[in-house]
Protein 1
Amino acid sequence: MTHDKPMPLLALRGVHTHIGAYHILHGVDLTVPEGQVTMLLGRNGAGKTTTLRTIMGLWAASAGEVRFRGEGIGGVGQQASTPDIARRGLAYVPENMGIFADLTVRDNLLLAARAARRVDQLDAARLDWIFGLFPALHKFWLYPAGKLSGGQKQMLAVARAIIEPRALLLIDEPSKGLAPAMIQSLIQALQELKRQRTTLLLVEQNFAMARALGDHVAVMDNGRVVHTGRMADLAADEDLQQRLLGLSLGAHQ
């Protein structure tokens, strides 16, 4: 008797992306299992951010296909718009966070909640859950987002992405520029999302965070995925880390 492998939540097959005259992705193959955390690692310029932006339809794939729950959302002849992709349950936290600096924390979250026009229409239980993950957002509820610290802005960016239930979160470099204490708080919040079986695809350069969160890993180089496997296996193999990433995870505790 054979057992079919479950369909991945997200799958990229042979994806190429051009940005103007530049050929950035060169046939990316990537699968993201549902309910788990997949880390997307690689040196600077490997194509990680371009991969996330291609998934979201911000840049169109010039060849190959992007499939979500088995349905095509990207690729020649089946490119969905970014708003349509978001409506399917994907949320993207870009490296620059994408928050509105002049608006309050409250109004940033309200804008991200498609089902609510007013604060009293927000899901109160979900809002309390978010405050449990990120207590600073409750404290600074009526502060302009631009006055938050870097770590608090990152927490707001993630909170915006999860103010409504999402099927898949794409997060680009969440720990970049954060102090170690803020990174630890962010790890704890993302671990809670993981315990809730939230599906995450994370681009991250902090390898302690990658090891703490990742179930699976895909390593990119020169616009291609050159390695896939269990994050724990990569974390345990310093020779493989050196070969794929040019450094050792042990040096980034």
Protein 2
Amino acid sequence: MTLTLVKSPDEAAETEPLTLAALRHEIDLLDSEMVALFQKRLELADRVGRAKDAPTGGYVKLRPDREQAVLAHVLQGARPDTRDAVEALWREVVGHGLARQGQLSVRVWAPVEPARAFDAARLRFGRAAELKTERDPQAALAFAAEGKGVAVLAINAGDPWWMGLRREWAALSVFEGFGRDIPTSLAVGRIDPGALPRGDRVLVTAGGDAGDGSGAGRRGLDTHHGWTLSLTSAPVVPGGPEGCVGAIA
């Protein structure tokens, strides 16, 4: 005959806290390891900042192409249910690393749903960046043109500021889009053209949005007096005759 030992309610109550304590102890150990790894990464970021060549032409220190490649590598090891959390954590880590080389300043203009645009910019650039709102898109563009920071501006918000990317703000490039399928705002800055991310090219052109001569169609984002802001998958060159003013991943 086999005897089965049944724990009393008092014994079960004593076992549960021990299990919880063990789990909390394991979390404490992981927290200590994470802090040590984070500090080591900051030290390596400092060394990279001192070793790399300083950008010429007044470009900001951001390398969207490098960030895109590293983030893709990081997300390969993330489970589908943790991808958003992993990306948010990674952007915070990178943001603090960049801040060691000088705080990044971001100006946000979004007259419609400003909190949404501000939150998207905060997620993209991290809490180490300095974020401020602007009431005037031209002021945000002028700030970005100085090369000391970047601007995040809403589109389809009643102001065709993007037309200036082919005119007085030609030194600025689009390097990020915010929105799931169709961008609702764009980030611009003095970005080295060779550091733009791989992805859709952003076009500012006169006329419609039927195509760009490469066989690739355009997806319109905004229009104003015969001018169109659109995306294309064609590998057009920024600053070229096609009207490419940047790229988004």
Protein 3
Amino acid sequence: MEKIELRGCSENELIEICQKIGLKRFRAIQLFQWVQQKAVRSWADIKNISKSDLETLSNHLHFSVLNKVREQRSKDGTRKYLFRLEDGETIECVLMDYARLKARDRHTICVSTQVGCPVGCAFCATGLEGFKRNLSAAEIISQVLDISQDIQQEDPDFQVTNIVFMGMGEPMLNYDQVLKSIRVLNQAQGLNIGMRRMTISTSGVVPKIIQLAKDNSQVGLAVSLHAADDSTRDKLIPMNRRYPLSELMEACREYSRITHRRITFEVALTADNSKPAEAEALARLLKGQLGHVNLIPVNPVVGTGMERPSQEKIVKFAQVLEDAGISVSSREERGTDIDAACGQLRRQWEGKLV
């Protein structure tokens, strides 16, 4: 009998399992709290459940913990982790510690949802290595739990406040496991992270955008837009050939109609695509859409050949959008000194950066 991954179980799933194997309901609640609140990594770490009950549980459930291979720390408080999975594959995730800034008590973890990525965006290091497999809900949740436990050894009061699903991989292509991980992380007996404090980022998987609106109207949505015309976006995001801008923007309008929530549109700015004409085209595309534009100076990544624009270009680009009535901000750079772009640490570890 194949064992179930314990860290991917909801409280109700554990209750159902306990009832099937003859254990009381309260045991399931205790177990869920140990796993999700206290982030234990083994059966030996659980103290208030009898050894006989733990042995019974271990016959049906499996701890899928991560092995920290490497950690990088930025001067701004950002930490980047490389974790090895049980099958030997590696993934990255990033802690963005905004609590160092005055009046901003926020700790955001950016998690991966796939090993590699099948989308192959032109500016992303992850896609350069291709796609291996989807992560399970347990492997997604484990990134949050293991980073929390790691930092709590230094700061016992540390708590994750926000989660963004925009690390390695396309979350919408692993939709079911991503949604399950969100629901588990939201549960009151676990980390109790609010739905509105979690955001899924997509390169534009149109059917899943609409499904997300219908399945869960509270989770935030970010769309990697990056260009306002199909010919340019085809080169930057191959997904656009399957779901062109006309279909993507219609899905975004439908999402906002159902949820009444604004979408964050991510725009990676390079030295080449940061001209006022591009900003004007973007303003026309987003006219009437409930949303906010987040400008992201592209991270320098070996193998992409892309360079970031000057600060002057970024300011002018933003001004064009503001003048057109589009809400806009420029992403605060985090972890640039430790190569915080998705996939960079993994490629470096595997010896593929020169």
